[in-house]
């Protein structure tokens, strides 16, 4: 469902966390060494959440968080045996979203992961996004033209799909990912249901729906959203 990077040098703890995240349907990338992780974060990376131990070989979690924040605003969760107020404040000042002290309860960790992932997937309050000559207000679900005329009011599911496209802009999104993110354990719709959502988006946003500029179909895989031509 989501892509998570876990940097933890204690193998038993790393394996336990990874197993439970994978049981929740997430894809997990593992690093045991801060130096290895720094190489990963020094290039383009695509994660929905990064979980960092603070005390790591070669490069600390604090240093890794600094490197991450130069490239991305991906949510960061610190895990650490250092639980003083000063330690927590130091981690949060570096740009971390949350801080969990070891030893911790597994359910608490999974709850924090769930909250951070859901928060990252939502647009910020009062935010709007422009696609071509149309503006979407995510607080009201409304679409208006540049003159302010109301053109359409989205359903919750349509907004969730648009949020996913915007979150993953420029990346190919498979039908399975769309189904996981929007329907989860609910009754799974047919592939045609997703196609109909895309057709409606094209009718609303594209100048020529048959030659889309924004909502592209990737044959045999899924879709790609771009706010420009391919």
Task: Describe the overall structure.
By secondary structure, the protein is α/β, with parallel strands linked by helices. The protein folds into two domains: 3-121, Rossmann fold (3-Layer(aba) Sandwich), CATH 3.40.50.2300; 128-225, Arc Repressor Mutant, subunit A (Orthogonal Bundle). The protein contains eight helices and twelve strands. It has helices at residues 11-23, 34-41, 61-69, 85-93, 106-121, 156-167, 175-182, 191-205, and strands spanning 3-7, 27-31, 49-53, 76-80, 98-101, 128-131, 134-137, 142-145, 150-153, 172-174, 215-218, 222-225. It has a five-stranded parallel β-sheet with strand order 2-1-3-4-5, with helices on both faces. The protein has a four-stranded antiparallel β-sheet with strand order 6-7-8-9, with no helix packed on it. The chain is elongated and about 55 Å long.
Write out key terms for the chains shown:
230 residues, alpha/beta, Rossmann fold, Arc Repressor Mutant, subunit A, 2 domains, 5-stranded parallel beta sheet, 4-stranded antiparallel beta sheet, 8 helices, 22% strand
